[in-house]
Amino acid sequence: MIERFPERRDEGQNVDIRGAAKDVVRRMGIDQAVRQANTGEVGTRFVTAEGRPAASFPVSAPGGADGPTAELEILRGELSRILIERTQEQTEYRFTSQIAGVTDHGDHVTTVLDDGSVLDSDVVIVAEGLRSRSRRFVSAAEVNDLGMYFAYATIPRRDDDDLWWNWQHVTRRRGVHLRPDNVGSTRAMLTFISDVRGLEDLEPADQIAILRKTFADVGGAAPRILRELEAGAPMYFSVAGQVHVSSWSKGRIGLLGDSAFCNATFGGAGTSLALVGGYILAGELAATSDHAAALVSYQRKMKPFVGAAPVVRPGVLRIANPRNRIGISTVRAAARAATSPAGKALAAVISRATNTAGQRVTLPEYPEP
Questions:
Q1: What's the CA gap between 22 and 34, in Å, rounded?
Q2: pLDDT band at 61 (very low <50, low <70, confident <90, very high)
Q3: Mean pLDDT in residue range 190-195
Q4: Is pLDDT larger for residue 191 or for residue 263?
Q5: Where are the beta strands (DSSP E) in 18-98?
Q6: What is the dihedral of CA 222, 224, 229, 230, to 10 degrees?
Q7: Full set of structural domains in the chain with CATH
Q8: Over the stretch 303-313, which tens digit does the pLDDT of each residue have?
Q9: Of the four, 3, 285, 286, 358, which is 20 to 30 A from 45 by CA?
Q10: pTM for the full predicted model
């Protein structure tokens, strides 16, 4: 495992494990560990600037259809810890390393690292993010920038922080979010939609300056988050995007996760798709000595899961993040209707129909290697 960061990364925000990915973590034997590391989030709540609830979506009961808050919510760093703890005896982790070049010789692959060392292997899998640097060894791809920026921060927990994902809608398509975690802090987000591109490439000090200006007139939790950012709170700044790659492999070199099939850098599908993809990839590689054919088969069997994932469109983002107060009132009214008895009954019917249609996309069965 090649990783350019100097150590395992503890930071990161909530990720969801949904749908078939729940079955994957059970088959991996990490279901109990994931549940023990759950963030404790009890649901999603739209709130006013004064902190009053405007609409609430409690987390579904175990086994039910997931809403905005999934049954399995875990911090990215906690999931990374669980995976590494259970693989470190069989896996060599090389931190502070980057891939400089890859050559497929037909019967093996040679990988050159930035420190000059050379590795020979049967396959190379690029399991990177939306803006993968190593994807070039398989295929060129254009990232579809959706224009929605996210500033993720980890801030000190206060006594009045609760276990809800509190989402404060703000005019001009802005949002302020507070979420609980299981390690004694609070996860915060500042979001906004802009026609300006490239803000994710600026220096952190410049990004904080943009956030300060963008949220200067916003009350609620925004001043608290800005104070913590200026005091040095850990922050990750990104823009939502999508990528579609026609071929996920080239000979013995393959793509996995967001580098292959990112439908958006948020929304709950990315981590689940990565887990399902890893399971199918492992099963196909174990089933044959023809590694190139296994990578092709992996894409064919994974495609239906990617196709079934929710589609995130710019128009939907703008509806969910209204421009004015009338739009915010409309979103809140629609949310309250959805949480009413009639709304829940309709949602149950839709969920049953969706689940019935989705039963055709089931995990392949593989013998244990």
A1: 10
A2: low
A3: 97
A4: 191
A5: 43-47, 53-58, 72-75
A6: 110
A7: 1-139+242-369 (3.50.50.60), 143-241 (3.30.9.30)
A8: 999 998 877 88
A9: 358
A10: 0.91
